[in-house]
Write a structure and sequence with these properties.
Blueprint (H helix, E strand, L loop, with lengths): L7 H12 L2 H8 L3 H15 L4 E4 L2 E4 L1 H25 L7 E7 L1 H18 L3 E7 L13 E4 L8 E15 L12 E4 L6 H10 L5 E3 L2 H9 L4 E5 L7 E3 L6 E9 L5 H16 L1 H4 L2
Parallel strand pairs: 3-4, 3-5, 7-8, 7-9
Antiparallel strand pairs: 1-2, 5-11, 6-9, 6-10, 6-11
């Protein structure tokens, strides 16, 4: 008897592709590593082919996996388009809008300013997706994304909404000697502009490495070391003068074919909030 494809297994398959193995996929999906492994094995058994070469460094996709990835992405895009179309048929200010944004901007700028908007639309639900990894708007992983890197692929709308300035900071009364003081930055594998700026300014890599910007700010405030922070997060810290201009452009991104009323309204509200915070972001 022929087995039917469990379409949900494609979600596990694409997660393994994008995150390099079972553990990364499991973290992204919020499930156990064993669950991801079972899903991949079931998909391979159904298709009658090996999709990955199991290696100590991760899961290496086979040629068949790369071919399947293309088809799986088409399925994701089709589902995202269909959901956007069906969502627009009902009460358009009722339901969920998923906004992906950096955690610090979400915590310190967006959430404090969103209350009046949410009070006006009590049936609207907002799902905030924070963190460093970039979610794919075209594949329906989020409805709107606030990003510091302009996306170049997909049927997307892109709006430049502001600029975020960075500085080199230390705790008051602490050492500012760039040659000897510990440096605070990102963990290996993140490859973010702040670490590249820090390398250029000091000629060194971070001694204290974290996976969250709030942890870096806490380390700098505690006098553990010197690091680079968005200026709006560092009012109580000592700014070390540099000749380097450190800033990132903020882009608001949405799917070009998912413009339901509630998504448009949230999009417009985020633009308003970021524009109102211009002086804080660009100081």
């Amino acid at each position: 008897m022929n087995k039917e494809l469990d379409w949900n297994n494609l979600r596990y398959f694409t997660a393994v592709i994008r995150h390099g193995g079972l553990s990364g996929a499991a973290r992204h999906l919020g499930v156990s590593i064993q669950t991801v492994g079972r899903r991949i094995s079931a998909l391979e058994e159904l298709l009658g082919t090996s999709l990955f070469v199991r290696h100590a460094s991760g899961y290496i996709p086979t040629e068949d996996a790369r071919a399947l990835e293309i088809e799986a992405e088409r399925v994701e895009v089709a589902i995202a388009r269909f959901r956007a179309r069906t969502d627009s048929n009902g009460s358009e200010m009722t339901g969920v809008v998923r906004l992906a944004a950096p955690e610090t901007i979400t915590t310190h700028l967006l959430l404090p300013a969103l209350q009046p908007f949410l009070m006006q639309h009590p049936a609207l639900e907002l799902e905030l997706l924070t963190g460093v990894p970039t979610l794919a708007i075209a594949r329906g992983e989020a409805d709107i994304a606030l990003r510091v890197v302009r996306p170049e692929r997909g049927a997307l709308t892109r709006k430049r909404v502001g600029t975020m300035s960075y500085g080199l900071y230390a705790a008051p009364e602490s050492s500012t000697d760039l040659a000897t003081t510990r440096l605070v930055g990102w963990a290996a594998g993140y490859d973010l502009p702040a670490d590249r700026w820090l390398q250029r300014l000091t000629g060194r890599t971070p001694d204290i490495r974290t996976t969250q910007l709030e942890a870096q700010r806490a380390a700098i405030r505690a006098g553990v070391g010197i690091g680079i922070l968005p200026c709006f997060l560092a009012q109580d810290l000592l700014r070390i003068p540099t000749e380097a201009r450190m800033e990132e452009t903020l882009w608001l991104v949405a799917h070009a074919e998912s413009a339901t009323k509630r998504i448009r309204h949230v999009h417009e509200e985020i633009v308003t909030i970021i524009e109102a915070a211009k002086d804080r972001l660009e100081q």
